[in-house]
Design brief:
The protein is of the alpha+beta class and about 160 residues long. It has two domains: about 100 residues, no CATH class; about 35 residues. The protein has five helices and six strands. A three-stranded antiparallel sheet has the order 1-5-6. It is elongated and about 60 Å long.
Length: about 160
């Protein structure tokens, strides 16, 4: 928890800690494991290139699908895209290396994700990207635990 979060938590405890609520420690205790990677890591880790390119003859838009049997391919063909052999594999190291993901696996097996995108390669810092991605994932856990607490309160 960063200093801003700590001071906010202290203020909440001082002013509004009269009923059950979700606390930062509750959120942290729900996390069973966490994983970090960039989009470039994800593409590189996809294994051997099993890819197809879908090209739309009207607007020239192209979609590259790295999986053999995906909804992307089916949807693309339904929307007027033609499947073509992949001529080249896009170089993911430039833009995809600037997109960091955090996947939090919660105790019940549910997953939440957070992302952090850096606009400029010169400003990219892997550690900062991971921290921002984790914070964004954590922000998705709060409503889930709030819903769980509200259910418990309503059942009482």
């Amino acid at each position: 928890m960063n200093p801003t979060d700590q001071s906010l938590e202290a203020e909440i405890q001082a002013k509004a800690d009269k009923a059950p609520r979700v606390k930062p420690a509750d959120v942290e205790s729900e996390i069973a494991s966490e994983f970090y990677f960039t989009a470039a890591d994800g593409v590189a880790g996809a294994g051997p290139v099993i890819a197809a390119e879908f090209w739309h003859r009207t607007n020239g838009h192209a979609i590259v699908d790295y999986s053999e049997h995906t909804y992307v391919g089916q949807l693309s063909e339904e929307k007027g895209y033609e499947r073509r052999p992949l001529v080249h594999r896009p170089n993911p190291t430039a833009p995809l290396g600037l997109l960091t993901f955090c996947v939090l696996v919660l105790r019940n097996g549910f997953t939440v994700t957070g992302e952090s995108a850096c606009a400029s390669p010169e400003n990219f810092d892997a550690e900062i990207g991971r921290r921002i991605a984790r914070e964004n994932a954590i922000n998705k856990v709060w409503p889930l635990l709030g819903f769980r607490l509200r259910d418990k309160l309503a059942a009482a």
